[in-house]
Amino acid sequence: MTQPSISASYMLKNKNINFKNRIVKSAMSEGMASENYLPTDNIIRLYKTWADGGVGLLITGNVMIDRKALGEPRNIVLEDSEDIDLFKKWAEAGTSNNTHFFMQINHPGKQVLKGVVKEAVAPSAIPFKSDLQRFFPKCRALSCEEIEEIIQRFASTAELAKVAGFTGVQIHAAHGYLISQFLSPRHNQRKDKWGGTIENRFRFLSEIYQAIRARVGDDFPIGVKINSSDFMKAGFTEEDSQFVISELEKLGIDLIEISGGTYEKAALFGKDAKPSTVKREAYFLEYTEKLKEITNVPLILTGGFRTSSAMNEALTSGATDFIGLARPMALYPDYPNKLLENKVSNLSIKPVKTGLPFIDNKGLIELTWYNQQLVRIGKGKSTKPTFSPILALLLTIFKNGKEIFEKRRV
């Protein structure tokens, strides 16, 4: 039997959908929408460049289901068919070169920064810890009627994504956004059917999946991005995550991407990773190894991969079925082609640091620096991997003012 590798194709069970290789461009927030929250020529060019770069599956950054609920400035929103032709152009670009293109759909919940939206909503009216809360407006708890409306908004956006020509959708249930908030006992302290036990906290995600499936049919792939854990006291645990994934498998989920942490505890950036984890490159590899003992759902493992040897080892071991790449794709959009052609075996990406602790400790300069690289690709320019973080900081302040560092997200 041939050992799986990044170059191997993968047939998605029961969907008759074939991915040409095992490399996935994981979601990164682009912040490149028009003033009306629509795809622009630059973002269409960005995804065409990635598709030409050889990736098997592209996943968009956050596409919001409601223009009243933005995670950050310049999010794309898909809530009606009025401008569907722009989304068709985006889908056409992203599906070129025999590439699959999934739309990541999301609602931020209370992770909405001050000045971006009028109000914040959440499962329960529980603030973030004090040092983080100052960036966010006070939240209120959703009513049951509002919860049902949001479920249908997810379904509507997924249906529109299918109409536009995207080949699947990914429900964002990680990183502290609304679904993640419902899953977490730290943030969801409701006493009704939406809170309490993990079975009740899972209900929101379960009904979103089922509502989407009812709209898009059995042949359209639906994926979920979920935390292995949020790494916080009294939060969403690995046991909770395993329960949710097992239940999603019963419902018929097609693909699961594993991540971890929230903006309160940024494990998704590899912070505080153990030396053994760093050596194996993948931040959440140990978790997926355990997960594979209880589920047969195809998995995407994202976070930390840099070398073809580590990617192939993770695939050969059976710990994952796909390799997710994010920041390498922001610097080298043709990195998959180079990996597949054995033109590169190792990629070194240095941390983006200005040397100013009050900037670097927040991690926000990295988000801004990488966003500037995406903007360059979208303009048809080459990236600048050696671009000075200090210059990036000055450019950002000159263009947007210092407030931009209170309005950037992944």
From TrEMBL:
UniProt entry tagged with the keyword Flavoprotein: yes
GO MF: FMN binding; oxidoreductase activity
Keywords on record: Flavoprotein, Oxidoreductase
Family annotation (SUPFAM superfamilies): FMN-linked oxidoreductases
NADH:flavin oxidoreductase/NADH oxidase N-terminal domain segment(s): 13-342
Keyword Membrane recorded: no
Name of the protein in its database record: 2,4-dienoyl-CoA reductase-like NADH-dependent reductase (Old Yellow Enzyme family)
Lineage of the organism: Bacteria, Bacillati, Bacillota, Bacilli, Bacillales
